[in-house]
Prior knowledge:
By secondary structure, the protein is an alpha/beta fold. It has 14 helices and 18 strands. Strand 10 and strand 11 form a beta hairpin.
Amino acid sequence: MPTISAIQPATAEFLLSPDGRAAVDALQGAALGDAHAPALLADLRRRLTPAQAGAVLTLARLRQRAAAKFPAAHQLFFTAEALEQATAWPVACQHAAWIDRHAPPGPVLDLGCGIGGDLLALAQRRPVIAYEIDPVRACFAQANAAALGLADRVEVRQQDWVAALQANALPSAAAAFADPARRVEERRIFRLDQMQPPLEPLLALQQRIPLLGVKVMPSVADADLPPACGVEFISHAHVCKEAVLWFGPARWHPKWATVFVGATVVPLAGDTIAPPLGTLAPGNVLYEPDPALIRADCLATLAERYDAHLFDAQIAYLVGPVWKPDGLAQAFAIDEVHPFSLKVLNQRLQALHIGRVELKKRGFPVEPEELRPRLKLVQSGRDGVVLFTRRGDERLMIIGRRLAPTVLERV
């Protein structure tokens, strides 16, 4: 991605050297919090320059943080910005599997590879030629491929792929995966035409290559979608992490969702019909669909799956008679439904003996956490949930219980 790493190339070169690698490896498993930093830095500076010492400690910390996102993170090289932007490993593997399944034989281009989040997954299936304009990220991507035994399947070019495209110098490939920057000077971007590089060269590339995938923001608007693409919304750990525009044979539907339910990947195509409407009453189950399923317009399919309905056409909550757990929606038992009133809410919290409460909202104008200091909870009371929402112009509060385990902070 065309951003500049905070670390300087000379310092990155040191980290990749035997001495740099040994210094970082020596910190593996150590306590690296802020309280330990002064002593660690003082020890490192006895044999390293201040820049090298700071880089060693930073990389060791990043490796610990990356353990939840990457396999063999203790062997890999990161910058803070690149780690934040990198695709989580299960999602990267899904990208790679989708490309490998649908592309004709041949290598894959990784355009804007960063430190190699998608690159490493792609290289496990096909040879990859990667482009990265930032020299530090390019070096780290090549080193990361080598660390996982993939050096012979990866070539990282420290170049601007758009310039190579314009010069007709991009190599032939069966597919390409692009990851344009979605931040400019720390400002988050919400439109496709503001990405760097913009959509125009990607659409030009799409005319020359059989299959193209473009990672974009999950908030991408329908009106911004280019013709002839399908859009996949991907959810991992109950968060809609990204959307991918797919061109060519990888376009499965105009819209679809891919949801990770534990180790299982569930794809669900978007709907062209609206879910049914019905009532909202105590004794039923309220489903909050995974956000990727909402973005992909999968509510009608979910309504049929749960024998459920909407209670408002504009609110993405489904109501059904029984709980059908499948990992595609959070579920709540509905105990009471009231027009919104803080006074009534506190009365009911006391009457229902609720001592810990989870607050959620959809279509409600006030952030629930702003109300938390004003709630009157019962000491040592039970767990509960309050969902603030609306039906038409009427503001509602639904009091109930979560039907899946969660960790609540005591208030």
